[in-house]
């Protein structure tokens, strides 16, 4: 229980074909609420921070929040640095105590990506941390990282060479998924997940999870997507919850910040709990 390595948290989900929500938090309220959802639903949880959040809050403050809020927690949780192309930020977070990092070198030529990912894996191992890797950009911009231009998909052979060479613990392939809100229902290459897992069994990270259908989630999870990233859905829940509460407060002429925080926290907790039930992680922590 308590704070655990990413590899440990994903071992059973990958083997038993369920998934753990990997949720991007951006302040103390969202961090506390998703952790509370994990406890309430007896679910493992991956808490993610973007580079933007690390820089805006500070790695020391973020990690202090993390250690304070996870002290004595009774479900397995882990802290992950999402999409980070900056090696200095990776080093900073690993030194602070992040449990895993996604080194995003997807804009580099594959050879350069592999070489640097090998270095990041070696660095992470010194801290007992895990590494997620990718060779293709996930379409869309998330917290100032990424591009709206669809990246070229690499061949299965290239993907497998990357996995064998780098020794990453989790892999995030591009399968037609995208960051942000989908403008139309995405057409996903689910077979690519199956092909990768069959040739090189390791947990697959599904990026751009916000907005996929329940059927798409279940299908991809059954193929080996054991880590499902959620960012936009949390941002939208947080902002819309604030907006709805403040509109009501204006109508009533009652301005009570603690009531606002409680209301938004509950909406974030409910959203997270619903994802845990959908992904099959609820109740898995005993």
Question: What name does the CATH topology carry?
Answer: TIM Barrel
Count the beta strands: 10
**Helix and strand composition category:** alpha/beta
Which value, in Å, is the CA radius of gyration?
Answer: 18 Å
**CATH homologous superfamily label:** Aldolase class I
With helices defined by DSSP (H or I, 4 residues minimum), what is the helix count? 11
Q: What share of residues are in beta strands?
A: 15-25%
Describe the strand arrangement of the main beta sheet, using strand numbers: 8-5-4-3-2-1-10-9
The CATH architecture assignment turns out to be Alpha-Beta Barrel
Active site: 82 (proton donor)
Binding site for Zn(2+) 2: 104, 134
Pfam families: F_bP_aldolase (PF01116)
Cofactor: Zn(2+)
SSE blueprint and pairings:
Blueprint: H1 6-16, E1 20-24, H2 28-41, E2 45-49, H3 51-57, H4 59-70, E3 77-84, H5 87-96, E4 100-103, H6 110-126, E5 130-133, E6 140-142, E7 145-147, H7 156-166, E8 170-171, H8 190-199, E9 204-206, H9 214-223, E10 225-230, H10 232-252, H11 257-279
Parallel strand pairs: 1-2, 1-10, 2-3, 3-4, 4-5, 5-8, 9-10
Antiparallel strand pairs: 6-7
Helix pairs in contact: 2-4, 2-11, 6-7, 10-11
Features:
two-stranded antiparallel ribbon, globular, TIM Barrel, 10 strands, Aldolase_TIM, alpha/beta, single chain, 286 residues
